[in-house]
Write a structure and sequence with these properties.
- This protein is mainly β.
- It has a single domain, classed as Kelch-type beta propeller (Neuraminidase), CATH 2.120.10.
- It is built from no helices and 25 strands.
- The strands form seven sheets. It has a four-stranded antiparallel β-sheet with strand order 1-2-3-4, with no helix packed on it. Strands 5-6-7-8 form a four-stranded antiparallel β-sheet, with no helix packed on it. Strands 9-10-13-14 form a four-stranded antiparallel β-sheet, with no helix packed on it.
- The model has no long low-confidence stretch (mean pLDDT 95).
Length: 273
């Protein structure tokens, strides 16, 4: 990446990803409005977001259309519901979340997204709130079974999974309800993930930071090949078979990008006659 950072919004695919806002230092703040796009080979700086903040949620199918929401602005520092929509060229302020919060996560696209969990309220605490985004408005839908913040979520607006974070359990979403499923083997806050509720991978996280990567087959988690660099508060995008990990806290902050390729196997019949 051109700008090393942590606690930023990320979305897209392995070959068409977006990274927006976040913190450029560890420890401490120095948040940025910087936005970058990844084309499968390199990162390019594009137009900045309107509002400086970190610990946002994000959703988007690719680098041409995304939404970021929530997070913490430098002043006054409280969790907020501020939402911005990306059209491939510019960011536009749109309708806020119903429940302002930071350290939340997102799944889905810029027209069919989810805002999952987070940290907010007075007194501040982990929340179970989930909101659905239709490209114009946020609507409160059924809560998580377990309130959490600093989790990672991946999938679509009808087939998502919320993984770990401030609690160790995982939950899948079918478009209406959340269902508790098997826990990850190694739970950390601020992990990355890609895939959906039936097949996913999760990677990294801290504290302390790990390179651990696990594969979800719809029933259980299995440890697979680690990241090359242990890190937390990183960005992620992609699918179960082709994921992307970028940025994060090493410390200090990282600009490194790593690609995940799921090994594929085929059955070959050999005639031995």
């Amino acid at each position: 990446m051109n700008t090393a950072r942590r606690k930023f919004g990320s979305a897209g695919t392995q070959t068409s990803a977006i990274a927006a806002v976040g913190n450029q230092q560890h420890p401490g703040g120095n948040p940025t409005t910087n936005t970058e796009l990844y084309d499968g080979t390199s990162w390019t700086e594009v137009n900045n977001a309107n509002r400086t903040r970190s610990s946002v949620g994000a959703a988007g199918a690719d680098s041409t259309a995304a939404v970021i929401f929530g997070g913490y602005a430098p002043s006054p520092g409280a969790a907020e519901g501020y939402t911005e929509l990306w059209n491939g060229t510019n960011w536009t302020e749109v309708n806020d979340l119903n429940t302002g919060r930071g350290d939340l996560d997102g799944a889905g696209t810029s027209t069919a997204g989810l805002a999952v969990g987070g940290y907010g309220g007075s007194p501040a605490a982990a929340v179970a709130n989930v909101e659905s985004w239709n490209g114009t408005n946020w609507t409160e839908v059924n809560d998580l079974n377990t309130a959490r913040n600093s989790a990672t979520s991946t999938g679509t607006s009808t087939a998502a999974i919320a993984i770990g974070g401030s609690v160790s359990d995982c939950e899948t979403w079918n478009g209406t309800n959340w269902t508790e499923v098997a826990d990850v083997n190694t739970n950390k806050s601020d992990m990355g993930s890609s895939g959906d509720s039936s097949q996913a991978i999760k990677f990294g996280g801290g504290n302390p930071r790990v390179a651990n990567t696990e594969d979800w087959n719809g029933v259980s988690w299995v440890e697979v090949a680690d990241l090359n660099t242990a890190r937390a508060q990183l960005g992620s995008s992609g699918s179960y078979a082709a994921g992307l990990a970028f940025g994060g806290e090493v410390p200090p902050v990282s600009a490194a990008t790593e690609e995940w390729i799921k090994p594929s196997f085929t059955t070959k019949t050999i005639d031995t006659d």
